[in-house]
Amino acid sequence: MGMSRFIKAVQGAFHSIVYTDEAGRFFRFSGGTWAWRNHNPGNIVSGSISHRHGQIGFACSSPTGDKFAIFPDDESGHAALIESLQTTFHEKSIPDLVKIYAPPTENDIVTYEKHLRSKTGVTDDRAVKDFTSEEFQKLWQAIELIEGYKVGKITEVYQIIAVQENKKRTICRCCIAPDQWASKEKCLELAKESKLDVAVCTSRSGHPYMRAIPSSAFQKNLSTLEKMIVEE
User: How far apart are CA 171 and CA 201, in angstroms?
Assistant: First the structure.
C-alpha cells in the first residue's frame, strides 16, 4: 500500500485505529485484535516505558478505561514489553505478575497463570529476574500468545477538514485533503466504503446525509468545521 513510517495514531470509529504516516496519509486498522491494531503485541498500557519506545498514541480498549499504548510498528511494541518484564516485573513471580499485568477485573487470572506456567515450564515462584534466558523468552512469547495477535484489515482513509454548503445550509462538497474537494455524492460513496469516519443517515424527506461517529477521535463533528457558502 506504500505506507511510510507512522508518526501519529488516534482511535477511530468502532474500535479501529487510524494512523498518520510521514506523507500525511491516513490508514485505518480495523478488525483483528487490539494487539495488532495498536502494534502492541503485549497490550501494555501507556506510560514511561511505552514512551521510551516511541509511543505515538493510545486507545481506551477496556471497560476500566486503561489507555493502551499505540506504537508505530510491532518491533517497538515488542521492545516495550521486554523492558517492562525486565524492570517493572523483574522482582515478581508468575502469580504476582499476572495479578498486575492481567488484573482479575478484565481477565481470568487462573487461566492466565496456568498458561504462563505451561509455556515457560516454571512451576515455582521464582522472580522473573531469576528465569533462565530460555524461560524468559518463553515468558514473553506466552504473554504475546495469550494477549492475542490476529491480523485485520488496513484501509487508506480520508478526513473531512472543511465543507461547502449551499444557500439551504446543506453540505454539497467536502475537503478531504489539502486542496482536494469531493462532491457530497462522492463522500457518501467513500463513507459506505468505510473510507470516511462518518455515518450515512437518511432524513425524514428521504435524503441521505452524513454525520460524524461519536466514537471516533479522528473525524471532527462536521458542524464544527470551517464552512463556505456557495451558489448552488
Answer: 13
Distance CA(78)–CA(53), nearest Å, equals: 9
Handedness of CA 107, 65, 35, 79 (dihedral sign): negative
Region class of 82: left (phi > 0), else alpha (psi between -120 and 50), else beta: alpha
- The cell numbers describing 172, all together, are 454539497
Tens-digit pLDDT profile for residues 158-170: 999 999 998 888 8
Query: Contact, 25 vs 195, CB < 8 A?
Result: no
CATH topology of domain 6-147: Helicase, Ruva Protein; domain 3 (1.10.8)
Provide the residue ranges of all domains of the chain, joining segments of one domain with +: 6-147, 159-229
Please choose, from the candidates 27, 11, 39, the residue with its C-alpha nearest in 3D space to the C-alpha of residue 155: 27
Residue 173 CB coordination number (10 Å): 20
Cell numbers at 4, concatenated: 511510510
18 strand-pairing partners: 10, 28
Minimum mean pLDDT among 44-58, 69-83, 87-101, 170-184: which range?
Answer: 170-184
Quickly state the pLDDT bin for 63 (edges 50, 70, 90): low
